[in-house]
Design brief:
The protein is an alpha+beta fold. About 25% of the residues lie in helices and about 30% in strands. The radius of gyration is 18 Å and the shape is globular.
Length: about 180
């Protein structure tokens, strides 16, 4: 539910529910210019249509979401992620480090019916953060979805997205009742 649904919020309150979680919903309108993004020397950008290594994806996301240095063995979860509706490998961007490992992963999805893109997930391996990789990968994927007709992209919660020009358009809320 979102904070824009005031009639539902009032109904929940009147029935004893309380809000237990709230997070911003952000979008990047494609009417705005994309942020400038250059790759550092030695790094290369490609889509999953060009190179799709589930083990490297798993390692990148494992490390990028701060789960530790050694990923578990559940590489199949990365294949399952790619079986979802609207998944298109040519829209997902990876950035390879000079060593060949995936340093940054940007999953991008396109909802053709509603003309929007949504980002999920975006992660950078800690050793490669703060050099512009996430901006470069995200911008590449957004350009591709704009070319397909998307009008905006849904982003994430961290401050990173605001620094790139994403705007908060509302808040997702979770409500609960103690019985």
């Amino acid at each position: 539910m979102t904070d824009k649904e005031t009639d539902k919020i009032e109904l929940l309150r009147s029935r004893g529910y309380t809000r237990v979680h709230r997070e911003p919903v952000t979008i990047f309108p494609y009417s705005k210019p994309f942020p400038a993004a250059d790759l550092p020397p030695g790094f290369t950008l490609c889509s999953l249509a060009e190179e799709n290594d589930p083990a490297k994806i798993h390692a990148c996301l494992w490390k990028g979401f701060n789960h530790g240095d050694e990923p578990d063995s559940d590489v199949d979860c990365r294949l399952l992620m790619q079986s979802g509706p609207n998944f298109r490998p040519e829209l997902t961007t990876v950035i390879k480090a000079p060593s060949g490992e995936y340093a940054c992963y940007t999953g991008m999805w396109f909802d053709e019916r509603n003309k929007h893109a949504y980002l999920e997930p975006l992660a950078t391996v800690p050793a490669y953060r703060r050099v512009g990789l996430a901006t470069a990968a995200l911008t590449e994927s957004m350009r591709k979805t704009k070319a397909l007709g998307a009008q905006y992209c849904f982003g994430g919660v961290p401050e990173f997205y605001g620094a790139l020009g994403f705007e908060t358009i509302g808040h997702r809320e979770l409500w609960r009742k103690e019985w």
